[in-house]
Structures are given as structure tokens and as C-alpha cells.
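Lab meeting, item 3. Inverse folding demo.
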């Protein structure tokens, strides 16, 4: 595998990023209109992004992660208006309170509240809902049965 070396350009600006946390993955979307010349270097403890937009503005981001990730199972995909990064956590089922190791959040990073879920208690909540549903089905099958319907009109003789 060829290792990409991304050199910081003299004049650049950070791309705006929104992120959200899931059980096994962290997703980061860099908002760049019509990105081109995209280079992404994903390392266990950080990632580096370099790209240009349709007006040749240069974007460069260095993002040290809160925890280490699995680089072989992390991916990037370029879309018309964003660069989507999917990072596989080294420790699944562990919530990241913030994206970077440093608690001071840069102005270009924000939380994607539209996709954020509180998944930490998801298993227990789902089990409780399932138990309530199972009890309801059991109750419906034992009570309020009444007489069987007359189905003589279904005969096709």
C-alpha cells in the first residue's frame, strides 16, 4: 500500500466539518463545494485532508482523533458537495464525547445533530420495547377472542 504524503500548502483554509458518533463508527463530513484533487491520509491517531473546490480555493485539515481508529476499515468518499469520511473505532461500543483529543473545539468542527443518536442505552431501550410488544401480543391472543367468524360465504361451490 502506497502511503500518501500530504504537505501543508502555504495558503489554505480549513474545510468546515460536521461529525456524529455511532457504536462502531465515527462519521465526519467535510463540506466542500465540488471538491477536486482530494487527498485523504487516514492514520491510527489522526487524519489529514487536502483538496480544492471549484474556484481553486485550497482546503487543508489536520484532525487528531479522540481515540485511535482502525485504518484498514476506514473509508472516504467524495460527493458533489462534501467529502464523507467513515472511521472505524478501535474500541467499539465506546462513546466519543468529542471528535478531537483536545477538548477545545476548533471553529470549523460542529456536531451533526440531525444524525446524532444516543446509542449508549439503545440495547436496553429496545429490549424494553420488545418485552412490552410481546406482552401486548400475548394479551391479545388470550383475551377478547370471541366466537370464530362464519366463513360460509367464502365457499366457491
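The presenter then showed the designed sequence:
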Amino acid at each position: 500500500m502506497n502511503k500518501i504524503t500530504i504537505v501543508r500548502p502555504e495558503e489554505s483554509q480549513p474545510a468546515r466539518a460536521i461529525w456524529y458518533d455511532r457504536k462502531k463508527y465515527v462519521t465526519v463530513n467535510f463540506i466542500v463545494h465540488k471538491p477536486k484533487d482530494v487527498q485523504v491520509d487516514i492514520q491510527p491517531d489522526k487524519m489529514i485532508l487536502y483538496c480544492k473546490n471549484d474556484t481553486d480555493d485550497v482546503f487543508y485539515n489536520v484532525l487528531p482523533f479522540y481515540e485511535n481508529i482502525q485504518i484498514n476499515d476506514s473509508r472516504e468518499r467524495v460527493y458533489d458537495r462534501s467529502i464523507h469520511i467513515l472511521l472505524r473505532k478501535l474500541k467499539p461500543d465506546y462513546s466519543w464525547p468529542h471528535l478531537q483529543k483536545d477538548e477545545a473545539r476548533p471553529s470549523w468542527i460542529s456536531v451533526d445533530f440531525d444524525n446524532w443518536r444516543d446509542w449508549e442505552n439503545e440495547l436496553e431501550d429496545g429490549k424494553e420495547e420488545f418485552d412490552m410488544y410481546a406482552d401486548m401480543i400475548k394479551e391479545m391472543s388470550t383475551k377478547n377472542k370471541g366466537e370464530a367468524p362464519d366463513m360460509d360465504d367464502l365457499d366457491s361451490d
